[in-house]
Each structure stands twice: as structure tokens, then as C-alpha cells.
Amino acid sequence: MRRGNFRDDTVDYAAVGATHAPDLMQYPPERSFPAEESWRIGSGAERFQTAGEALLSWTAQRAAGLAIEDVRPAPGPAYAGVSFDAEGNPIAPSKRDLEPRYDAEGTPFVGPGMTLRVRGRLSGMRADAELRVISVTEEARRIGFVLGTVGGSVVSGEESFDVDWREDNDEVWFTVRAFDAPNSLLYRTVPPLVKRRRRELFARYLRAISPLYATPL
User: Fold this and answer.
1) Where does the record place the DUF1990 domain (predicted)?
2) Cα gap 17→7, rounded to integer Å
């Protein structure tokens, strides 16, 4: 098992870690729109490992049309340990050096405390942002991470990505949870556009991670 956690005041929202709260959909952070989707993407150890590897190598973000740029590791030692308990409460992490990994293009895998820039367009609108990796989880049956906005985005908030290999039925599930608070004038004026943006992101993430996904965008 490997878990990493990083919290920093430079994120541009207050509810750090709220995507792990069980009641996110009922009680989202102030001014934000919550979203959650889960999809069965196969079964077995191989499917779980393949999906987890894709997730930690930024496949979901790239499939959403976002270029990954300026990836920087956390300043100082990484953190390992439990990030959040079952109720979404943070638990003090422990320090541990983690071996860096890279994808075929030389981009570092997702790591706790890492910052990066994404650039692209979504629904015809700019989707540039600076992001921070809030936490990373690598367990025998769960792989995932949490991304939070630092600045420069049309929305502020957080996304969590998790691949779970269920022990009771051998199924592998991909879950994305998020909350978005509009920053741009257009999104503040027309709130349904925030939800539309999120629906399109979810569809693209699923296309990237699931071999079962066949519905065109």
C-alpha cells in the first residue's frame, strides 16, 4: 500500500479534501456544484492494474483534451500514510521517500504535492488552470488521486479519481467526484454551463479509462 497526502494554503478554495466526504452531494462547499459518477469498467486484477496505471499517468486529463505542462514535484519530502478517514476527515500523514515514475513521454506519474499546468479547451471555452495533487492512494484494491485548483481556471474546486477492484464480485469500478465553483463572469452568469462542462469532462474521463465505453461525444 502507498498513500500520499499534501495540503497547502496556495489552493484557491477552502474545502480541501471534500471530494472524499460521504455527504458531498448533499452538502457541497459553498457556491459550488457537486458531481459524482461511477462506472463498471471490467473485472479482475489485470483490468484494475491497467486502469490504475492509466489513471496515474494522466491519461484521463489528456483524453479530455488537456495538455499537461510544467509538472513540478512537491517542495520537500513527500508524505505517505492515510489521507482521509471513512467520514472524510484528514488524518495526519507520515513522511516517506517515494520512487518517481515516468510515462513514455517522460512526464512524472501523479505524486502528492505535485503542481502542474493544464491547457486546452472544453465546449469551446478555455480550460487552462494550475493544479495541485492533494493526495494519492495506491492500495491492493484501490488506486486514485485528488486534484485541486490553484488558480487561473474558470472554476475553482477539486476532483477525485478512484479505481476500485471490489473483493465481493471481482468487478472494477471507476469513480470521479468533483465540486466546481464558477470563477469566470460567464459561468457565474449562466450556472448551467458549469454542469455542462462537468458532464463533458466526465464523459471524456470515462472514454480514457474504460475499454467498454463506446458512446461518441
Assistant:
1) 13-74, 108-208
2) 9
